[in-house]
Design a protein that fits this description.
This protein is mainly α. Helix content is 38%, strand content 9%. The chain has a two-stranded antiparallel sheet with strand order 1-2. The radius of gyration is 22 Å and the shape is elongated.
Length: 112
């Protein structure tokens, strides 16, 4: 199917982008809610992508990371300022994927 192929090749599209691609490539007009229901019916869910920097394992980057870690011993905690950024990440990547969890009820001793 066209939409499934589209999501498989570019899983980070938004619903609006899927809608626009269908209009430009297929001359088909669908509402956002229709696309959302289609995804739900085919068990395609939006999932956060856990990022891993590709360059993280390069020798030069690895060397700098080790040097930085070794320098942490010299930090003075009483002179440090800690900033909690747990709620401030807004540039997370999301993508669509096939959700293979069972649709039926689970046994009482199972968890999702």
């Amino acid at each position: 199917m066209v939409v499934l192929d589209l999501v498989e090749t570019t899983p980070d599209l938004t619903l609006v982008e899927v809608q626009e691609r269908l209009m430009t490539e297929r001359s088909e007009r669908f509402g956002i809610s229709t696309i959302w229901r289609f995804f739900g019916g085919h068990r395609i869910t939006l999932n956060k992508k856990i990022g891993h920097a590709v360059e993280q394992d390069r020798p030069d980057v690895l060397k700098r990371r080790r040097e930085w870690f070794e320098d942490q011993v010299d930090l003075e905690p009483e002179r440090s300022i800690f900033i909690d950024e747990a709620g401030g990440v807004r540039n997370s990547l999301y993508g669509w994927r096939l959700n293979i969890r069972p649709a039926g009820p689970l046994r009482s001793d199972c968890r999702r």
